[in-house]
Amino acid sequence: QSKNLGRNRWVFYSPEMSEQLVRRREMERALGQAVVRDELRLFYQPRYSLHSGIMDGAEALLRWQPSPPALVMPDSFIPLAEETGLIIQISDWVLQRACRDALNWPKPFYVSVNISPVEFCRDDLAERVATVLRVTGLPAERLELEITENVTLEKPDKVLRIMQRLKALGVRLTVDDFGSGYASLGYLKTFPFDGLKMDRSYMRDFPHSQQAHSIVNGIIGLGKAFSLVITAEGIENAEQFAELQAIACDEGQGYYLGRPMPAADFIHMLETVGQKQISETGQPG
Ligand code: C2E
Ligand code: MG
Ligand code: MG
Ligand code: MG
Q1: Distance between CA atoms of residues 182 and 79, nearest Å
Q2: Residue 15 pLDDT
Q3: pLDDT digits (tens, 9 = 90+) for 9-37
Q4: Which residue ranges does UniProt annotate as crossing the membrane (predicted)?
Q5: Residue identifier of the C-alpha nearest atom 12 of ligand 1
Q6: Does the Cβ of 205 fall within 6 Å of ligand 1?
Q7: Can you give the three-state secondary structure of the chain, one letter per residue?
Q8: Which residues of the chain have pLDDT under 70?
Q9: From atom 2 of ligand 1, which residue's Cα is the shortest distance away?
Q10: Which atom of ligand 1 is nearest to the CA of 197?
């Protein structure tokens, strides 16, 4: 199908294309209402110290529940939220919810929140975080912000300034999905990160492939050289867990150790199991 828009100007479109546009508009409208309609949920995935085998924190992972039982995963709506600017409103909700939830936990674990690169395009990120800390009363040292490595590439001076302000508040900064993008080693030196999370893809052939093993070992060494706390994400089995402990990776996260779960389930687990520790047999106990 095509439409004549005047002399020699033809716009071609297919019914699928317009359908896609309509669906996008509809989703954008619905997402814009998600906060006021109270449709956002935070799931928590535990993180363990690999040195002690004890849980010491959790990552907040966002879900959208426009109507039960539908649960929309972040990869299907965060990009739209970023393109439309809705991410700021959503992220304010996430930060506030995560800080309040963490105050309800029976242990003073830290809570880790993912920050979108778009939030670094504005000047007010540190002020927004400071406000949330003040309003909720969560001690700054219990909040960690995860930032994907690509964020640092575009406007390094501006990003550095914002990161320094965040550091001054006392929050921890961690590079997320390290090794999945284009950042060079230099930026680990340039930016004031406290931690590094290895991209999940490095776990795929680990520990069996010699090459995967060397690369993971290399990233851990690199992180240590920059005095960063190294976390492996995507740990799915006992062999990976044991080998990461053997090569002195600091922290671990993954389905083997615990899946992301609703906030209430996370508290329930903490209350019933107490301080979860990985037993000698390697099973989360
Ligand atoms: P991420 O920050 O790298 O989070 C880790 C993702 O890996 C999560 O997916 C988690 O459920 C999944 N995962 C954890 N352990 C395993 C494992 O052992 N195996 C496998 N295959 N996957 C594992 P999820 O929850 O779908 O989140 C996807 C991404 O969405 C996150 O990646 C993060 O970049 C983004 N995201 C999530 N919540 C937020 C948020 O509140 N704000 C922003 N800006 N982004 C968020
Ligand atoms: Mg993350
Ligand atoms: Mg990650
Ligand atoms: Mg990611």
Answers
A1: 19
A2: 74
A3: 566 667 777 888 899 999 999 999 999 99
A4: none
A5: 234
A6: no
A7: CEEECCCCCEEECCHHHHHHHHHHHHHHHHHHHCCCCCCEEEEEEEEEECCCCEEEEEEEEEEECCCCCCCECHHHCHHHHHHHCHHHHHHHHHHHHHHHHHHHCCCCCEEEEEECHHHHHCCCHHHHHHHHHHHHCCCHHHEEEEEECCHHHHCHHHHHHHHHHHHHHCCEEEEEEECCCCCCCHHHHHCCCCEEEECHHHHCCCCCCHHHHHHHHHHHHHHHHCCCEEEECCCCCHHHHHHHHHCCCCEECCCCCCCCEEHHHHHHHHHHHCCCEECCCCCEC
A8: 1-13, 274-285
A9: 114
A10: 3
- The overall average pLDDT reported for the chain is 91
The pLDDT tens digits of the residues spanning 99-143 come to: 999 999 999 999 999 999 999 989 999 999 999 999 999 999 999
Bridge-based pairing of strands 40-49 and 251-252 is antiparallel
> Which residue has tokens 């993180």?
47
